[in-house]
Amino acid sequence: MTTVPLLARGTGSLIGSEIRIFLRYGGSVFFALAFPMVVLIGVGLAIPGMDQTILSGPAAGLKTIAVMVPPVLAAAMATPALTTVPSTIADYREQGVLTRLSTTPMRPAGVLLAKLIIGVVCFLIASALALVAAALVFDVPMPASPVLTVVAMLLGAAAIFAVGLLIAARAPRASTAQGIGMLVYFPMLFFAGLWTPEPIMPEAAASVGSWTPLGAASQAISAGWFGGEMPWLQLAVMAVYAVLGIAVSARLFRWS
Prior knowledge:
The chain has about 260 residues and is mainly α. The protein is built from 10 helices and no strands. It starts with a helix and ends with a helix.
């Protein structure tokens, strides 16, 4: 029997098990699916001026809250990718779950792929809820280029989850993975524009951000949302992070 069927069969079973475990904890489900919606509504209602109309730039004519959509979506990718996923896999390693899995036909790539698929699917559901809420509460319009926006979201999620999987591949304990993840998490949010949205971000910071997975994701989503030049650089950066990150994490993966 070849490696691919074994990987496909084992991964499917693991995904089913992970989904059942995930659904047992209502708080985790709520946080994973409602976090971006809560953040977006909270920013729109709590920060003064978010209901004002932008007078110039690519988002001219839109409310200020609209420019917060891309960084909030980027934060929705990064939160599970850099906090939940690495610590969960490291906890499995610490508790001996991965050691038991190593005695089965499961491959390291299967463990990582299961977490990647579940994480990206949860992110897409959470994003859909957030965008519906933004449209209803703040009248935020839909993207100018829906295809580019979806591609940017998918590539961005794959890229930032790949970074999380790199942490998960080697971290011996959940606390270690959590600490490393948080060290990466906050700089990523800065370059994504969560505190300084792209239209007012210093040019140097935006340039650096375009080479980070989350900054590239936010900028590409902005291009798809508000129109403008095709973000070829950002799309390429995300693709490289996704492919290399997943390949290297599978290569470095430790069962124990």
